[in-house]
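sanity check this record:
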Amino acid sequence: MTPIRGYPVIVLGVAFLTWLVCGIAITYTRGLPPLSPQVRLAHLPPLDLARVGITPAEAAYKGSLEVDPTGLVLVMIMDRPAYRFSGREPATVFADTGDRLVELGPAGTERIAAEFMNLPQERVHDAGVRNDLHEIKVDDDAHTQLYVSAKTGEVVGLTTRRSRALAWLPVPVFANGSDGDIGGETLNLSAFGGIDVNALSYVLEGPAPKEIGFLRIEGAPYFLVSGVRDVPLLITTKSQSGENLLHLDEQAVLEIRREPFSAESLVSHVRQAIPGTPIVESAVLTQYDSYYQPKSASRPLPVLRIKLDDPDKTWIYIDPRTSQVILRQTRMERIERWIYPTFCEYIRCQ
């Protein structure tokens, strides 16, 4: 058979086009691979709830936050409980004293990185700041690099020598948005009072949580507890009197919400969060599709899939149990799923 002379040219052309597309994508995502919720949670220490001395509203006041946050979590930072606010004014306020975390220098980011990696501080080294992120080099076998926010102290990215090498093939490492609130609704901080540690421990019946997310769903306050079970737990009260969620009395008892939110209410929430963006399709999936795969317990079923008619043709997968976004995928990321099925799945599972 006569060989096709143009075949090598075609192969090289496809490779070049792929490289170009990957380069553009990495440029617009700052080249930062996503830190999966499972990896991030595994590195977090248990919360010391007994040291939480102020409410979220008090923390916002003491931290001089000028705008209402759209997201809030309670985590440990530098061995202290801290409220991390997200939205137009991201900030971290320590929950024991109300002191706001100022912009971090090398010493602070090295301490955070050492705690995250569970290593002595002399084995992590601040390599400078880029786009408000400190790059931290770790002395370990994987040649790990961490990326820490200078403003909030959050570890937002992690790479190893292997993942950086694969990125030069090029294998695209698009940042799938995942594991977060639908957004679009500010929190009513006054609805969250002081945490009753005993009541929370009683309902969880397990180890101390690693993270508590404060949520407002359909106008009601909830908090999302992570690090106790394989999946996050949505906590509410039996009381419907409008009292503070965590300010307990004889009529207000904490409980785990087990009933899922309706698909109609979740679709309505998405419409409110992104007004002007048409929803092409919404469906409750009881089986995995080609893009939503069972990598871990963080990919539960059933799941609500919503297809948006935005410029990126985004698909959103929402857990009806918690109303949280499990996965966001753009059209480019779905194309990637078919071009690089083996490499991409290998990288993301690390």
User: Anything to note?
Assistant: The chain has nine helices and 15 strands. The domain at 261-348 is CATH 3.10.450 (Nuclear Transport Factor 2; Chain: A,). The CA atoms of residues 312 and 330 lie 5 Å apart.
